[in-house]
Write a structure and sequence with these properties.
about 260 residues; alpha/beta; Rossmann fold; three-stranded parallel β-sheet; 8 helices; 9 strands
Length: about 260
């Protein structure tokens, strides 16, 4: 009895499958307005062009007042290229549901605020006038203060960021005042080889003090930090990564 050999198919084909992409579910679109700050000596703007681009990419719309970023050296063109809408009427910006400001609400803003609007800005409750707060309450304004925002760890990230900026910048400002051009002693903050380094005394071992110490150490200065909290002094040393001169605020040592 003959056994028939099985036939093996040698023909095959490939089928191209479409790649599946993760599609982020769309939430409610937010309309955000950024007015030009008119408060005294306020040169900041709440959002940079890059931040606006992130919001627009996520489906939100951003409206910015003409020349709102001028004092921060951002042009209208920068914001327009990021997807923002530039408007020339200040009142038009305040018609959107959410207003983001880099300065607290001032008296000039009150007539433009809409009923039930959301304001995201610094609040500065310690200096907020009672009548201004009452008028905002009359308009049912929801005010969210930058300085009161907490993250998952319970800290205040925006306040910390501002403190880091202040601590780093203060040493650069101090270096400018040491120069002869600003009627200083004409010395470098860090000193040079063969010359004793400039002595820097920092009062307070908080975030500002920590970043001021970092900047001064990088420039080569001799740094001493005073604070009545031993815990904060230890934390500062741990964060910097090596031991520096620290002391509690003892008047005799401090004056010396």
């Amino acid at each position: 009895m003959s056994q028939q050999k099985p036939k093996i198919s040698t023909s095959f084909s490939y089928e191209t499958l479409e790649e599946t992409l993760d599609v982020r579910p769309k939430g409610a679109q937010m309309q955000i307005g950024i007015p030009k700050e008119i408060a005294f000596q306020e040169n900041r703007i709440a959002l940079t062009p890059d931040a606006v681009s992130v919001l627009v990419s996520n489906g939100h719309s951003v409206m910015i007042e003409h020349n709102a970023g001028e004092a921060s050296h951002f042009r209208d063109k920068d914001y327009a290229e990021s997807g923002a809408k530039i408007v020339y009427d200040r009142a038009e910006v305040f018609k959107v549901p959410i207003i983001v400001k880099s300065a607290p609400v001032i008296d000039e803003d009150l007539p433009l605020l809409q009923m039930g609007q959301v304001i995201i800005s610094p609040i500065h409750l310690s200096i907020l006038k009672a009548e201004l707060l009452q008028k905002m309450m009359d308009k049912r304004i929801t005010a969210i203060g930058f300085e009161n925002l907490k993250d998952d760890s319970g800290s205040y990230p925006i306040v910390r960021s501002m403190s880091e900026i202040a601590g780093s910048a203060v040493m650069l400002v101090a270096a400018q005042y040491l120069s002869s051009a600003n009627h200083g002693k004409g010395v470098l903050l860090g000193g040079i080889s063969g010359v004793p380094p400039t002595k820097v005394i920092i009062l307070g071992a908080g975030t500002v003090g920590e970043y001021a110490a970092r900047a001064a150490l990088v420039l080569g200065a001799s740094v001493k930090v005073f604070d009545n909290s031993v815990y904060r002094l230890k934390r500062l040393q741990n964060n910097i990564g090596f031991r520096i001169y620290t002391s509690v605020i003892e008047p005799r040592i401090l004056s010396k």
